[in-house]
Design goal:
Helix content of chain A: 25-40%
Distance between the termini of chain A: 23 Å
Oligomer: heterodimer
Distance between the termini of chain B: 39 Å
Order of helices and strands of chain B: HHHEEEEEHHHHEHHEEHEEHHEEEE
Strand order of the largest sheet of chain B: 2-1-5-4-3
Strand order of the largest sheet of chain A: 2-1-3-4-5
Radius of gyration of chain A: 20 Å
Structural class of chain A: alpha/beta
Number of domains of chain A: 2
Shape of chain A: elongated
Strand content of chain A: 15-25%
Helix content of chain B: 40-55%
Order of helices and strands of chain A: EHEHEHEHEHEEEEHHHEE
CATH topology of the largest domain in chain A: Rossmann fold
Number of strands of chain A: 11
Radius of gyration of chain B: 52 Å
Strand content of chain B: 15-25%
CATH class of the largest domain in chain A: Alpha Beta
Number of helices of chain B: 12
CATH architecture of the largest domain in chain A: 3-Layer(aba) Sandwich
Largest sheet of chain B: 5 strands, antiparallel
């Protein structure tokens, strides 16, 4: 899948390109709005990651002109967190909005969501290794043993399991599981993960919940490298 | 055109002076005129009576003509007096007019019938000198009738009045001028304290906010003004001090994570490390970055919340349900630290739900940090006509009375050593207070040796206006 990153800060652009390429995307980079718009119109991209503050033509201008011909999804990046800015970006035809500084896993999650186009499918039954999750009856079994989880613990496990292999940041987890949409200094998520592990993983040699230090958590059979 | 206060006052004062002096002048002038002319007319009438008495002692027209000198003698004391005596048939017997007044035919019969003389007539000679004249009928001994007319030019009186008018004009003009000048000077003098205030205000800069305007030299009317200005300065100084302290604290708190990153990276680079070590370093750097990021987010939030454009997205919800949700959010932490969280009550609340959660989460996180193991934190919601009250109560050491006023300050931490700066950036409670205040509510804290209670009050909403906000 081919993505376009329009970002004037060269260091940021370089790392975005590298990170996205390592996540399996083909990435083109433009360092100003005019070049970016040109590339976006001439080529076919699945998604454009667009910085708002750009030389020559700013992000608003790019998306406005782009929408004359194309419907490529646009993820705005900005350092300004004004509600009006956010509204303006979405009104002009942006599809999502990410505030700098952001966690890369967050960006990756947004990119994936935009590319998926549509809500996450509710899965009724999930299993990984000897873990089984029955979403309808909210029951969890490991190695045939029933595990009692609180509603929030279940929600956390379900989130990790449906995003198998994907690193989820603490902010994402707090938002999905508890609907808490602000960064807090508390280690609520770490503690919740620790407690979930105690119930799911501690008694078993095969660990399913893994910590990616500094980034978040991932649910998979193999530990991420 | 904008006039100075002194000029304006002088102008108004001079207007008042001119008007009142002119009025006085006109009144006095009229009174004098009346007096003078009345006196003249009276003299004229007396003169005519005199002449009539003289005539009525005589027998006939011929006698009158013979005694012409006696008649004229009566008029000689006044060279402006003219007299004419004529028969009823119109034959002029005596015509004395030394100053050429030019006698006219005067009515000799009184209007009311009472007086002996006719009404006083006024006219003017060719030289526009005003003339008053009066006439009377006299009956001679032989029964024939005579008409006696006397007229006087009022030139003396007119001159006097002219003079008098000139004096009045001059007096009004000069007095006004003096009044204006004096007034201007007085006002300028009276405004000296204002200039002094302006001068001392000018000397106040951001660096010298501790100076105050001297109130003792100011006149009574300006005391309030000076005191308000000083009060404003005090508030500004307080704000500046807080801002300065805030900046210093912020810089200090940013220094720690940045220092950590730098030192850790430097140490790692001094020799070749294993991939695991590098990974650990990078992860640690990300954690420090997150810390800086959160701090920036908090500071920006506080700055934005104080701007008037900050938009609240208010909805109505039950505070009790939200407390329950927040308690659930913290259930792991509270279970690990062996603290129970009890939630009770419900309250219809009209607030921005995100911000409400943020405020209460900060309170609960704070309470959990300070509660000993096996104790219970109580969260309660209560509704009243004034709005919703949320309280978070925790047992623990309590906050010293001296520090109670500071707990909502930015970067305030219970311990001076900032030992917990990695888990709390010291902005949590400041954010709580800001959130409540932008809802028009209040945040309070009470503490004794055993318990600390935080109370948030969100005002009720009536007709789109927060009841508690002003």
């Amino acid at each position: 899948m081919r993505l376009l990153v329009i970002e004037d800060e060269r260091k940021t652009a370089k790392y975005l390109q590298r990170g996205l390429e390592e996540s399996g995307y083909t990435v083109d980079v433009a360092n100003n709005g005019v070049d970016g718009l040109h590339l976006a119109v001439e080529n076919h991209y699945e998604l454009i990651v667009l910085d708002v503050m750009l030389p020559r033509l700013d992000g608003w201008g790019v998306v406005k002109q782009l929408r004359n011909t194309k419907e490529t999804p646009v993820l705005f990046l900005t350092a300004r967190d004004d509600v009006e800015d956010r509204v303006k970006g979405l009104e002009l035809g942006g599809d999502d909005y990410l505030l700098k500084p952001f966690a890369f896993v967050e960006l990756l999650a947004r990119v994936r969501t935009l590319l998926r186009r549509g809500p996450v499918r509710e899965v009724e039954h999930l299993s990984l290794g000897d873990l089984e999750i029955d979403a309808l009856r909210r029951r969890v079994k490991r190695a045939g043993q029933r595990i009692e989880l609180t509603p929030r613990e279940f929600a956390l496990l379900y989130l990790l399991a449906t995003r198998r292999g994907e690193v989820l940041s603490r902010t994402q987890i707090a938002s999905y599981v508890w609907d808490m949409n602000f960064d807090s200094d508390t280690n609520v998520v770490e503690v919740a993960i620790r407690r979930l592990r105690a119930k799911i993983d501690d008694a078993h040699a095969l660990k399913l919940i893994h910590t990616v230090r500094g980034m978040g958590y991932v649910f998979d059979i193999n530990e991420p490298d | 055109m904008r006039l100075s206060l002194s000029a304006r006052l002088a102008l108004i004062f001079s207007l008042i002076t001119v008007l009142s002096l002119s009025l006085a002048g006109v009144v006095l002038f009229n009174a004098l005129t009346h007096q003078l002319l009345g006196q003249g007319d009276l003299n004229l009438e007396l003169k005519v009576r005199h002449l009539r008495q003289l005539a009525e002692e005589l027998d006939s027209d011929a006698a009158v003509r013979d005694h012409q000198v006696r008649f004229i003698a009566l008029a000689l004391d006044d060279p402006t007096l003219a007299l004419r005596i004529e028969t009823a048939g119109g034959t002029v017997l005596i015509d004395h007019d030394p100053s050429h007044i030019g006698m006219i035919a005067l009515p000799a019969t009184p209007e009311g019938g009472q007086a002996a003389t006719g009404p006083v007539q006024q006219w003017a000679t060719a030289g526009t000198v005003p003339v008053h004249g009066v006439a009377s009928m006299a009956t001679l001994r032989d029964g024939s009738e005579l008409k006696i007319s006397a007229a006087r030019s009022m030139s003396d009186e007119a001159r006097l009045l002219d003079n008098y008018r000139d004096i009045i004009f001059a007096t009004v003009a000069s007095t006004t001028l003096i009044a204006v000048v004096l007034c201007y000077l007085f006002v300028r003098h009276a405004l000296v304290p204002l200039r002094a205030i302006a001068a001392s205000a000018q000397s106040i800069t951001a660096e010298r906010l501790d100076s105050r305007i001297d109130v003792s030299g100011a006149p009574l009317e300006l005391h309030d003004l000076v005191q308000s200005l000083n009060e404003m300065l005090r508030r500004l100084q307080h704000g500046f001090d807080r801002l300065w302290q805030f900046t210093a604290d912020l810089a200090h708190d940013l220094r720690t994570p940045i220092g950590n990153m730098r030192v850790a990276s430097e140490v790692a680079l001094t020799r070749t490390r294993s991939a695991t070590d590098y990974r650990a370093l990078l992860a640690s750097n990300i954690e420090e970055c997150d810390r800086v990021g959160r701090m920036i987010e908090s500071v920006l939030f506080l700055a934005r919340a104080e701007s008037p454009q900050f938009a609240l997205r208010r909805t109505e919800f039950d505070a009790g349900e939200e407390l329950q949700r927040i308690a659930e959010y913290f259930e792991g932490i509270s279970a690990e630290s062996g603290v129970h969280v009890r939630v009770s009550g419900s309250a219809k609340t009209y607030a921005d739900r995100e911000l409400f959660r943020r405020a209460v989460s900060n309170l609960l996180a704070n309470a959990l940090r300070h509660t000993p193991r096996d104790a219970t934190v109580s969260m309660a919601a209560a509704e009243s006509a004034q709005g919703a009250s949320i309280s978070v109560q925790n047992p623990g050491e309590g906050i010293a009375a001296a520090d109670l006023g500071k707990v909502f300050d930015r970067f305030y931490r219970g311990d001076e050593a900032r030992s917990n700066s990695d888990t709390s950036n010291g902005l949590g409670l400041a954010i709580v207070k800001t959130i409540v205040e932008i809802h028009g509510g209040t945040a309070l804290v009470r503490s004794d040796a055993a318990t600390t209670v935080f109370e948030l009050h969100f005002p009720a909403f009536r007709d789109g206006v927060a009841a508690g906000s002003s």
